[in-house]
DNA sequence: CGCTGTGAATGTATTCACAGCG
DNA sequence: CGCTGTGAATACATTCACAGCG
């Protein structure tokens, strides 16, 4: 009864994002030597309210102590479990252009157990190069690469036109999750997890907020 | 009475994202020579339902023709107005590392009127270099750079530790919108628009969905 | 007593269903 | 008639408020 149970209800996407946020705050608190934290304090740091935090956590169990709050280290461990981060995840990067290189060089996610184990591209001038010892391989061999490395997640950093075909192929080859940076909506089979990040759409969110408003 | 009015109610973030999506689909339809589209067809292409589309649009006006649907070209124009994309937006890029370079090289958003007009960094070895003719300038001169270029949006591609200070400074210098790629939550004054993109949090969204599930 | 955990209440987003226009 | 535009209904997310435990 110590492990985190399956959630009692469907948990919203925003709730999951908040859990990621809480986790980062708890890391900071732990580094500062803070041992216990209340939902009120955590809410203040996360920019939300205490009830939201207690509700988010309550989907997965009861991790606090009435009267005192949450033990920082323990709550952090619980959230890691909830997010599926108690093990490491192997990632295949598809697309060795500028964006692919930036993602590869971005060491932040290594801290959370995400490891790029393979790089794929179609460009013959890229294939055979290596980044930090990882050989760039032809997309055509992706099935073998997935099998050999055991990668379960794919990060798509290809041009828009290539994205859907790449994702189809990865899905067939057994990929379990896809993070798509290509500026094109892609479809995946039901059982494959998907998120898309589109820089232009984020910029449009800003200009929507500013539209009409005058400068100053 | 032809222009797009201020929305009748507070419009949700997800609704704004969908409008961006509709816009892309309408572009495709227009390129295919399609002149008219119904909410049913658009919903099919966008992966949502017809009522959602009509509701999203109804916040801003009545753009369709009963009995036939929406004129593709006109609706596209309306959505551009809604999103604030009928003019171009000057963007300052802060951080000339890998990620900054990838964003700079990413030409997709140029098509929608976003233009990087300045690049800032603190690294002396970067300062003075130029990317496609745009000189990398010291962050210390950011007030002058903003004034001289008229940039209204900032894309933050700095390390986490630098992000808040950079954003504070930009805000003081009159920036109107911030797109933050640094892996750190930042605060901005009320009147500044903000979006944050955090790759690790997106990956955690995937592992949350997969946690517990077995492979295969 | 001070806090959590949670059912109930509120607020928000999505979907339904149909009146009404082209 | 076929579709949009929209109030009403439903579903969902957040916040309240308090019982109950440490």
| Tally of individual domains of chain A | 2
- The CATH topology of the largest domain in chain A is given as Rossmann fold
Overall spatial form of chain A: globular
Number of strands of chain A: 9
Quickly count the helices of chain A.
8
First CA to last CA of chain A: what distance? 57 Å
| Biggest interface and residues each | A-B, 60 and 60 residues
CATH superfamily of the largest domain in chain A, please? Answer: NAD(P)-binding Rossmann-like Domain
CATH secondary-structure class of the largest domain in chain A: Alpha Beta
Question: How big a fraction of the residues of chain A is strand?
Answer: 15-25%
Oligomer: homodimer
Q: Give me the side-by-side strand order of the main sheet of chain A.
A: 5-6-4-3-7-8-9
Largest sheet of chain A: 7 strands, mixed
CATH architecture of the largest domain in chain A: 3-Layer(aba) Sandwich
Q: Based on helices, strands and strand pairing, what is the structural class of chain A?
A: alpha/beta
Explain what you see.
Two copies of one chain form a homodimer. The longest helix of chain A has 19 residues, at 13-31. In chain A, a hairpin with a 2-residue loop joins strand 5 (130-131) and strand 6 (134-138). Chain A has 216 residues and is α/β, with parallel strands linked by helices. In chain A, the strands form two sheets. Chain A has a seven-stranded mixed beta sheet, with helices on one face. A two-stranded antiparallel ribbon of chain A has the order 1-2. Chain A has two domains: 13-82, Arc Repressor Mutant, subunit A, CATH 1.10.10.10; 89-201, NAD(P)-binding Rossmann-like Domain (Rossmann fold), CATH 3.40.50. The mean pLDDT of chain A is 96. Chain A has helices at residues 13-31, 39-46, 50-58, 72-82, 98-105, 142-149, 160-172, 199-210; strands at residues 36-37, 70-71, 89-94, 114-121, 130-131, 134-138, 153-156, 177-180, 193-196. Chain A binds a DNA duplex (22 and 22 nucleotides) through helix 3.
């Amino acid at each position: 009864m110590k492990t985190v149970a399956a959630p009692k209800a469907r948990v919203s996407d925003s709730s999951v994002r908040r859990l990621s946020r809480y986790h980062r705050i708890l890391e900071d608190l732990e580094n500062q030597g803070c041992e216990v934290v209340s939902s009120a304090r955590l809410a203040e740091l996360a920019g939300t309210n205490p009830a939201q935090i207690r509700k988010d956590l309550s989907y997965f169990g009861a991790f606090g102590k009435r009267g005192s709050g949450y033990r920082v280290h323990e709550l952090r461990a619980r959230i890691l479990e909830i997010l599926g981060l108690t093990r490491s995840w192997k990632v295949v990067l598809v697309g060795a252009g500028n964006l692919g290189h930036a993602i590869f060089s971005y060491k932040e996610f290594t801290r959370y157990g995400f490891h790029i184990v393979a790089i794929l591209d179609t460009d013959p001038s890229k294939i055979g190069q290596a980044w930090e010892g990882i050989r760039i391989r032809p997309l055509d061999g992706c099935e073998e690469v997935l099998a050999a490395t055991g990668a379960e997640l794919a990060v798509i950093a290809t041009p828009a036109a290539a994205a859907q075909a790449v994702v189809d192929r990865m899905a067939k080859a057994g990929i379990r999750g896809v993070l798509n940076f290509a500026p094109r909506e892609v479809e995946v089979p039901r059982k494959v997890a998907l998120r898309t990040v589109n820089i232009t759409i984020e910029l449009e969110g800003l200009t929507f907020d500013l539209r009409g408003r005058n400068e100053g």
